[in-house]
Request: fold
Amino acid sequence: MIFAWPTARPIRGEKTVNTYRYTFIKLAKQFGAREVESITTEEVFSFLAALSDGNKPSTKKNRFGQVRGFFHFVRQTTHNSFPNPCDAPVLRKLFRCHRLPSRDILEKEAVDEMIFRTEDTQSRLVLELMARGGMRVGEVLKLRAKDVQGTKLNLVAPKSKREGEVVFIPKKVADRLEKYILKHRIKSEGLMFPMCYSIVRSIVVRAGKMVGVEMAPHDLRRHAAIYASRSGTPIEIISKVILRHSNLSTTQRYLGKVSEVEAMRWIEDLYG
Reply:
């Protein structure tokens, strides 16, 4: 039995490649000496249960998808009559990841209030860069003094791996960043915010509690996209400039559902 992956659909991203490699190495160790037709649904279930023990539902689902995809590839290329052991309804049900409930949309007034009420300059800037610039937590934590070029921030090792990727921020936020650099005498190569993710999370949680909102850091990046969308910004600008996504479909998942009240208000504004 030869374990491989179709070259027609390359897997992109080092992290993705590593997760597939891990699963396939385990799969080869378990079934590599077997004829593919002899592998049963029960054996695949035992393998997946052991492989995913203690993992989150999303991880379990991903590993099930990787194994199912492999057997589908084998069927498509070398064993046309081979029944995919992962196609059994019981397996698909057991490793299904239920959709997470949609998060409430953060109102601009609530975000403004939590930012204005945050007295610590460092904490406020962290909040603003995510809520006004749409930055990810990792991008904020990697930001150096020399990366601040007025209203343009150069990103270090961005998620997209594209060179020269930048974030655009409002001038008032840029001015506060410059004052912060001067006040704390941050050197050119010095990190703007020398802290870890857990500290950022605590800043966000504490700010949310001030206005009675439960939120996580990524909710502020999502707010940046939703506020821009509700303000009439073209989706291409939201996708390519604010969120810096490679495709529009990813951006659309950020924008949330439109309520009936909101829909009625927009229709009235357009035609009323």
About this structure: The CA atoms of residues 6 and 73 lie 7 Å apart.
